[in-house]
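Minutes, project check-in
Item: structure for the 133-residue chain
Input as provided by the requester:
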Amino acid sequence: MSKMLFFFNYNTRDGLSIKTASADYEGYSFNGGIAMLCFNVVFWMLLGFYLDQVVPSEYGVAKPWNFLCGGKRKTQNSSGMETKPKKAKNFEEVTDQLKKQESDKDCLIVRGLVKKFGEKTAVAGTDLTIYNG
């Protein structure tokens, strides 16, 4: 492309202009080069978008390789996640004082919390109790 610019600037009377940009020089034209640069930008941008969706990463869920064809992902159950929380070893037992707050309805209790972003489920079937104090 630099040879072409040199040719137009030093060997033609008008230099590179809209009229001379489509002229062939050694089988290439300036307009053809610009068109290929635009094509490369669009091609690599679309390929990057596709790979960002398909390649597994630390964040999000990788889509199947044919997600552009409308293929649906299979989920474990209807909500996509288990709705009953499992008893975890890293939670401490609730004291009698806190159980009294629950029975007196003196705390905030949330059951079956679900939050979705489009088709992705961020939170599914979460139970949460927030005590006073």
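Outcome recorded: Residues 74-79 have pLDDT under 50 and may be disordered.
No further action items on this chain.
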